[in-house]
């Protein structure tokens, strides 16, 4: 069945450093979504990527969808303590399949 | 607009008991999905409902069941609870089924002792 992998599992960065998490699927995706979950909180939707090679930016966050639509990345420039949390990618093969969440990347930011 | 509401927030049950969790989606949202979150397994998909019909089901035993009412509110039930069922159960609502943004509730923290 479809598998979604994320690397790294954990990342500790000094405040101000950049951070990147990668999401890889064993199958071609119809789209990919990214969520952020703060410690003790619930997942919050960040963005959805649909097109091959798509790049979207939200302030210091840059999201990319791979050309083959089998991988995606989230890059944070100049991390801040407010970026702490776990970042999940989520996808489905088609609009009618179940959603598969990646295992998440837990980001710690050292002030 | 009110967010997704899950009740109760916390629950302690003993092995063998059953439990029912409730989820009220955002007004106008017709799709509701349920997830189990544990430190070891991450976010695991349980089921997805749209217009009172189960659209998808995850790889969980038959002890886990759910339903959706005509007002889009949803419940999930777990029978014959096991210690391993201890988890955060999250409900998410979407305006429609398919590839749309999901809004999560705060979750119900279930502890089985």
In short:
The complex is a heterodimer of chains A (111) and B (113). Chain A is mostly beta strands.
What does this entry look like structurally?
The complex is a heterodimer of chains A (111) and B (113). By secondary structure, chain A is mostly beta strands. Chain A is 0% helix and 54% strand. The radius of gyration of chain A is 13 Å and the shape is globular. Chain A starts with a strand and ends with a strand. With 113 residues, chain B is an all-beta fold. Chain B is built from no helices and eleven strands. Chain B starts with a strand and ends with a strand. The mean pLDDT of chain B is 94. The chains are: A mainly beta (111), B mainly beta (113). At the A-B interface, β5, β9 and β10 of A face β5, β6 and β10 of B.
Task: List the main descriptive attributes of the protein structure presented here.
heterodimer, A: 111 residues, mainly beta, 54% strand, B: 113 residues, 7-stranded mixed sheet, 4-stranded antiparallel sheet, 0% helix
Tell me the Rg of chain B in angstroms: 13 Å
The arrangement of helices and strands of chain B along the chain is EEEEEEEEEEE
Q: Helix count of chain A, per DSSP?
A: 0
H-E order of chain A: EEEEEEEEEEE
């Amino acid at each position: 069945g479809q598998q979604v992998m994320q690397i790294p599992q954990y990342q500790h960065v000094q405040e101000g450093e950049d951070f990147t998490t990668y999401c890889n699927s064993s199958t071609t995706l119809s789209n990919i979504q990214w969520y952020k979950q703060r410690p003790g909180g619930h997942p919050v939707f960040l963005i959805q990527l649909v097109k091959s090679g798509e790049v979207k930016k939200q302030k210091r966050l840059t999201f990319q969808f791979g050309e083959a639509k089998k991988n995606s990345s989230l890059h944070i420039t100049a991390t801040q303590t407010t970026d702490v949390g776990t970042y999940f990618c989520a996808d489905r093969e088609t609009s009618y399949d179940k959603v598969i969440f990646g295992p998440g990347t837990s980001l710690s930011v050292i002030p | 607009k009110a967010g997704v509401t899950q009740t109760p927030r916390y629950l302690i049950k003993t092995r063998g008991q059953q439990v029912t969790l409730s989820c009220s989606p955002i007004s106008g949202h017709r799709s509701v999905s349920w997830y189990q979150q544990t430190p070891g397994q991450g976010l695991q998909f349980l089921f997805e409902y749209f217009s009172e019909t189960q659209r998808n089901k995850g790889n969980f035993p038959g002890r886990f069941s759910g339903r959706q009412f005509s007002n889009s509110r949803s419940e999930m039930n777990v029978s014959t609870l096991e210690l391993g069922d201890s988890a955060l159960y999250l409900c998410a609502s979407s305006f429609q089924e398919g590839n749309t943004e999901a809004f999560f509730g705060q979750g119900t923290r279930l502890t089985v002792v």
